[in-house]
Each structure stands twice: as structure tokens, then as C-alpha cells.
Amino acid sequence: MQDCVEVTGIVLKADSIGEYDKRVVLLTRERGKIALFARGAKRPNSRFMAACTPFVFGTFLIWEGRSSYGLQDVKVSNYFEALRTDYEGACYGMYFLELCDYCTRENNDEKETLRLLYQSLRALCHGGFDRRLVRCVFELRLVAVNGEFPGMPEGKFEEGTRYAVSFIVGTPVEKLYTFTVGESVLQELVQIAGRCRARFLPGQFKSLEVLKTL
């Protein structure tokens, strides 16, 4: 009998392996980013079919092999269904997943990144937040979580922008999406977040290219 452990996390991506199986990448509270194999997940009657898709948040029971993990069971807490029927929301969400996949590692302490991702996906589903602001918050806070936020850049920025940046990098994650800004401040936040993302998270992201067309 293989040893099993329980992890809580979000599915970052899932790729087909052979005819019926999937390779799933999870961002977990306990073990950082891990990859596992879900046998039979593509079969129509598989209990893993719906759970092995991006955005799914839940508790995963996994077995530990010598060089890989396998999925034993899963209890889904949130499918983030709203993102599955909203093309723009899904694009933003996939971008967030790609960023997390890019900057997280196995056996790292990624609890703060997981909390940030979860709250940001909730904000995308809410409908009451400007998604450009959600993206700015996510990018700036992710850079800060990684310990690389350089502080306010030089230049003339509105006082509201300076306050917003300070709030984004310093407030508890659960309270991040409790404010709104005017268009002029938002434009400055977009500029600052874009610079930080390009400098500290310089990967190539397919979903970012799609976002640029929206």
C-alpha cells in the first residue's frame, strides 16, 4: 500500500498523457508546486474528470512514488465556474495561473502565493471589480511576495496611486480587493505593474498575448 498525503491547492494546468491519463500541476499549501499523474482522468465516467482542470481548488489525496505523485482522491471546494463561461475572465485567470506556474517551485513555502491566487480568482468572478485593477493588484503583490518589489518608481504620480501601491504590497491578502480607484490612478497602476512584471517576471506567457488583444 502506497503512502498517501493530503494537500490543499489549485490546479494550474493539466495536460493529456496517453489516451486516458492526465498530468496535473498543482500549487499547494503544503508542498509548493507539484506535478502528479491522474490515471483515467479522461475517461467519461472518471471521478477525476472535472477536478483535473485549471482553476479547480480543493483537497487532493495523493500517493508518493519514488519519482512522482499520483492522484488517489479529490474533494473540490471551488470550480470557479464563472470563469468557464466568461472568455475575458478566463483569459485573466489563465494569465494568473501561468504567472504562478512560472515563479513557484516544489517544496518552497508558497502559501502566500496560493492565498493571493485564490483571492484574485474570486475577484475576477465577482463582477464588481475592474479586471485591469485586479491584474495590477495581482502582479504587484506577486512581485512583493517573491521579495523583489523595489518600491515606488521615480516619477510624478498621483497621491492616490502612491497610497494604492502601498496598500497592495502591505495589506493582508484577504483584504486586497476592498478598494477601487479612478481611471487616472488606474492608468498609473497599470504602468507601474507592467514595469514590475516585465522586470521581475519576464517569462513568455501565452495568455498575456491574448489579453493584449482584448
Describe the protein.
This protein is an alpha+beta fold. It has 2 domains: 4-78, Nucleic acid-binding proteins (OB fold (Dihydrolipoamide Acetyltransferase, E2P)), CATH 2.40.50; 83-211, de novo design (two linked rop proteins) (Up-down Bundle), CATH 1.20.1440. Helices cover 39% and strands 22% of the residues. The protein has 6 helices and 5 strands; from the N terminus they run βββββαααααα. It has helices at 87-103, 111-126, 131-145, 159-170, 183-200, 206-211, and strands at 4-17, 21-28, 32-38, 57-64, 69-78. It has a 5-stranded mixed barrel with strand order 1-2-3-5-4. A hairpin with a 4-residue loop joins strand 4 and strand 5. It is elongated.
User: Could you tell me the radius of gyration in angstroms?
Assistant: 18 Å
Strand order of the largest sheet: 1-2-3-5-4
In total, how many beta strands? 5
CATH class call of the largest domain: Mainly Alpha
Strand fraction equals 15-25%
CATH second-level architecture of the largest domain: Up-down Bundle
* Large-scale geometry: elongated
Structural class based on helices, strands and sheet pairing: alpha+beta
Helix percent reads 25-40%
